[in-house]
Amino acid sequence: MMLDLLVPFPLIQLLLGSWGLVHPLCHSNVTITCSWPNRTCRPRGNNCHQSANPINVTSHYHTRGRYPDCSYSTTPQNKFYVVAWDPHQPGYSPNCLTPVGLD
C-alpha cells in the first residue's frame, strides 16, 4: 500500500528508482517514512518526516557539459533523509499523500 502512494508521481518514482547506467539517487523505499512522527521543517511547517535509520544514497555532481551531453561524478553515502508530504489532493485516493520535498 505504501508504494501505491507514489503512483501518481512518476518523477518521484524516477528519482527513487533506477536510472539504468546511472546509479540510483536513493536505494530504499521512502514512502514508509510518512508513518514516522512529524517534525518541523522550513518553509513547509510541520509536515516533514525523518527516516528512522540512515539509508544508502548516491550523490550526483555535475562535472562538465550541457544537456544532453552532461557528465557527472557520483559519491555513495549512508545518510538520514527527510520527506515533506502534503495531504491528499482532489481527485486522488484519501490515502494518497503528495510528496513535496526530499532532502
Describe this structure in words.
With 103 residues, this protein is mainly beta. The chain is 7% helix and 37% strand. It contains one helix and six strands. The strands form two sheets. The chain has a four-stranded antiparallel β-sheet with strand order 1-2-5-6, with no helix packed on it. It has a two-stranded antiparallel sheet with strand order 3-4. A hairpin with a 6-residue loop joins strand 3 and strand 4 (71-79). The two termini are 23 Å apart. 10% of the residues are buried. Mean pLDDT is 68; it is low at 1-27.
Briefly characterize the structure.
The protein is mostly beta strands and 103 residues long.
Number of strands: 6
Count the helices. How many?
Answer: 1
Rg estimate, integer Å: 15 Å
The helicity comes to under 10%
Low-pLDDT stretches: 1-27
Largest sheet: 4 strands, antiparallel
Keywords: Secreted, Signal
Domain Ribonuclease A-domain: 11-103
Organism: Mustela putorius furo (European domestic ferret)
Subcellular location: Secreted
